Amino acid sequence: MLKKYRYVLTGALQNFLYYIIRAYCWTFRFSVENEEAWLHHLQNGGRVLLCCWHQQFFSAIRHFKHYAVYHPALMISQSRDGDIIARIAEKTGWHTVRGSSSRDGFRALKEMIDYLKKNRFAGHVVDGPRGPAGVVKAGVVKMAQASGALVVPFYLSADKAWYFNSWDRFLLPKPFSRVTLHFGDMLDLTSGTGEEDFERQRVRLQEIMLPRLHT
User: What's the pLDDT tens digit per position in 5-59?
Assistant: First the structure.
């Protein structure tokens, strides 16, 4: 019985936190750039895998609720922090797959690939949940190659922001700051089947994304 009440209380607190975050994000003066091309590809039957640095995902929460109609998926770690993020993602309309490179990674990756094949839309944090910052892990390339999805990196910037003293220098825009969500070009990472080809595609994505990491 105690466990049941603890679960209800935890869920209520997570729901409350979601609405606090939503209200906070609505203070941003928000703009979106270069969204049309990949959205057109998705709406016409293509598969899309959005990806970002762990540092920058928070600022996208407000806008990403618009994508709920496409039933996208997102892999989230099984940590306590992951529980909070998963609840927020689900309230935003995203399907969550729990797992990471350090725990249940193979199962979660397979589930993400299956979901991406069927529903054609997912997101991924390329260096999460523990880093190191600025290093693209293998999961995003594996998902793209197994599903045939085009990869679209996205980046967040703010004219006024705090940076946490964390492994990723987590970015938190200040209230009423100008926040820009910029989508990069669609990338096909599916060419080649060998280990060298795989690593080449991973490094390619990393080199494209690194200049937009805030250091």
Answer: 344 446 677 788 888 999 999 999 999 999 999 999 999 999 999 999 999 999 8
With beta carbons less than 8 A apart as the criterion, state whether 82 and 98 touch. yes
Structural domain count, the chain: 1
Strands (E), the chain: 29-33, 48-52, 73-76, 95-98, 121-125, 150-158, 161-163, 171-173, 178-183
CA atoms within 13 A on the CB side of 141: 22
CATH number at residue 31: 3.40.1130.10
End-to-end CA distance of the chain: 48
Q: Is the pTM of this model over 0.85?
A: yes
Q: Round the average pLDDT of the chain to a whole number and report it.
A: 91
| Domain coverage including residue 167 | 2-212
Q: Please calculate the CA angle 188-193-194 and round it to the nearest 5 degrees.
A: 125
